Amino acid sequence: MKAVERVDQFYLLKQLPKATALLCKKGIVQDASCSWLEIFSQSLQDKNHQTKIFPLYPEFLDLEKKLMEHTPFSIKHKIKSSKGTRHLKSYFAPWFDEKENVIGTIVQTDDITSEVEKEQQIDWLNNILETKVEVSKTGWWEYEIEEEKLTWCKETKRIHQVPECFEPTVIEALNFYKPGYSRNKASMLFHKIALSHQPYDAKLMIVTLHGEERWVRITGKPIIENGKTVKVFGTIKDIHDQVTAETTVKEHQQLLSTLVDSLPLNVYVKDLESRKVLVNKGECKFLNKKPEQVIGKTDFDLYSEETAKIFREEDLQVMKHLTPIIGKETASTVHGKTIYFLTSKIPYFDLEGKVCGLIGMSLDITNIKKKEEQLRNLINITSMQNQKLISFAHIVSHNLRSHSANFSMLLGFLNSEKDAEERKRILKMLSQASDNLLETLENLNQVVDINTKTSETKTPLNLKNNVLKVLENLSALLEENKSQVINNISENIEVNCVPAYLDSIILNLVSNAIKYKSPNREPLITINAVKSNEGIILSISDNGLGINLDKYGDKIFGMYKTFHNRKDAKGFGLYLVRNQIEAMGGSITVQSEVDKGTTFNVYFNEES
Amino acid sequence: MFILMKKVSCIFIVDDDPITVFGIKKMLRTVTHCDDVQIFQNGHEAYEAIKERQEKGENIPDVIFLDINMPIMDGWGFLDELIDLNIDEHVVINMITSSIDPADHKKWNSFKDRCPHILNFKNKPIFKIEPEDLGCINVAS
C-alpha cells in the first residue's frame, strides 16, 4: 500500500504541534500526532490492532454517517479522566489524494477546556450582573462609536417601558428625555463624552414609551483606545420614587420653614436644658441677633436673671408635667424696654413619644397693650364727659321745668280768676316768668356753646396784658368798692387760651371777689401766676366773705348755686368759668376760709 | 266725704322763687284760713326762724312748703337741721320741686324714713293744695 510505504511521511505527522489524526474511509486511525494520541489516551497501533474513531466519540452516534458526507464539520465533546474533564473540539475534514479523491478524513482536536471554563465564568458573571440589575434596578447601555450601535440591556428597556425587542438608535434614545432641560442636558453630556472623554453622572427626567414622566440617574463612561473614545458604557437607574420622596420632604421642609419664619410670632424650640435649638426670623429680630448667636443659648444668656428664672420655671412645668401653657401674658425687659407677650409653650415629643424639649410661641402685644391703655383712658374721658352731659341734661330739664311749671300754674289761676286786679297781677307774674325763662335759655346756650366749640382755636396770650385789660373794664366797680388790686404777674407769661374764655374767667373771678367782699374790710385782690410742671397756674385771692367749703365744697361750681344773700347772685358765673377752663383742657380749684377770704387757682393746659 | 279739719295756725313757705310763693299763697287762701303765713328765701332763714320760735316757746309751724333748690341752704340741708332740733310736734312738710331727677326722689325716700315729721313730695306744677297737704285726715270715703 502506498500509505504504508510512505511511512516516513507519516512520521512527520507525529510531530505536528496540533493534535491531528488521519482516518481511512472506514474511520480507522491511520496515523496520528502524539498530541492527538495523548488526548485520547491511545498509542499508535500496528496493522493488526486497528483503532476505530467512533468509540472515541461515544456521544455522537451519527459520526460515521457524517463522515460519509465528505464535508468539513466540527463537534464539541469532552473526556472525563481522573484529572478532571477536558473540553475538546474536533474538526473533521475530508482527506483527498492527488486526484482529489476522498481517501479518508483528517481530524484535528483542540483542547478548549480553558475557553469553556472562561465561558462558564462569563455566564456566571452575567448571571450575577443580571441579578444585580434586577435587584438594584440599574440598567446598562453601551454605544459603539464606529458602528454607531446602541445597546440597551433588559432593565434599561424596562425602565423605558419598551418591549424587549426594541433596539434604539441614539436619536430615539435621546428623545426619551423630557423636552427642555433633561433632553438638552442628556444630548450635551453624550456629545461631550465622545469628544472630551468626560464621564458623567446626572439626574434627568425621561418620558417613557407609555408617556410616564420618571426621574432617572444616568452615568456614562468612555472606553478609550489610542486616545480615542471607541465605546461609551453607562448605566441608567430609575430613581423616580426616591426623587419624588425627596422632593416631597424638601417641599414639606420648605413649607414648614417658610411658615415658621413668616409667622408674626416669635417661635423657638428648646431642648430639655432650655437651650434654644431652633429660632425663627421673628425671634431673631426681637433679640436683635443672628440665629447662630441664639442657637445653643438659654434665656439666662439673653434675658435678665430674674426674667430667665421665670421662663425656666415655665419650661420645666411644661416639660415635666406635659401641661402646655397657652396664651399666657408675660412681660419681659429687653434693653430697658418692657415688652408684653402672649406666650404659649407646648411640650415637644420625639418620634418615640418621649418629651425632648418644648416649642414656644410668643406674640408681641406691646402695641395692643398700649392701645388698650389709650382706649381705657378714652373710656374714662368719655364716661366723664357723659357724666357731665347727664348732669347738664338734668340742669336743663330742671330749669326749664321750673319755668314751665310756673307758667302752667299761673295760667291755671288766670283761667279761673274773675277779679280784674288779681288777673293783672297774674299777668305781671307771667311776663316775669317769661323773662326768667329767656334768661335761663341764654345761660344754657352759653354753656352749650362752650362745650360744643371746644375746637375753637387756642392762641398764646400774654396773661398780664389780659388781666390788665379786664381790670380796666372793671375800674368803675373797683373804684366804687374802694378795692385794691395787687397784680404780681410777670411780663413774659403766656397762656394758650381762647381769648374770650380767658377774659370771662378773669372777669368772673375778679368781680366775684368784689361781690362777696367782707362788710368789715376794703377789698384786697391779689393776682399771681406761676409756672409749674403741669403748666401755668393763675391764682386770684381776696379777703372777702369766704365760704364754708366743708359744707358747700362740691356745689360751689354748680349751676344756679348761690351761697350768700345777694340779689345779683345768679349762681352762674363760676359754673361758666369751670366749663370754659375745662373746655380748654385745664381745671380750677378753690381754697377758702369763712370771713378770711377765698383763692381760686386756674390751671391752664398748655397743649394746643 | 267727711273731712276732719285740723286748725292750721302757722304755715311756712320756704322758696326763693316769688312766683311759686305767690301761687302757694293764692292756693292756700282757697282751702284754709291762716293768719300766720311766713315766707323765707332759703332754708337757713326758715331754720333760724323755727329755732327762735322754739327757744321763745312760740308756735312751731304746722305746715311747711319747702323748695329743694335754694341758695345758702337748700331743702335737704334744712331738713337735716330740722331733724336735729328734735321738735315734738309732727310737722307736715311738703317738698315742692320742679326736679324730675330720680336722685331727688331717692333722697326724699331716705329722709322720709328717718324724719319724725310727715314728708310729702310734690312735683311742680301744682294747681291745688289738698287737705292732706295741711295734715287733714280723710276719715270717711
TrEMBL record, chain A:
UniProt keyword annotation of Calcium present: no
Record domain PAC: where: 200-251, 312-377
Coiled coil: 427-488
UniProt keyword list: Coiled coil, Kinase, Phosphoprotein, Transferase
Catalytic activity: ATP + protein L-histidine = ADP + protein N-phospho-L-histidine
SMART domains xrefs: HATPase_c (SM00387), PAS (SM00091)
Domain Histidine kinase: 395-608
Pfam hit, one: PAS_9
Protein name: histidine kinase
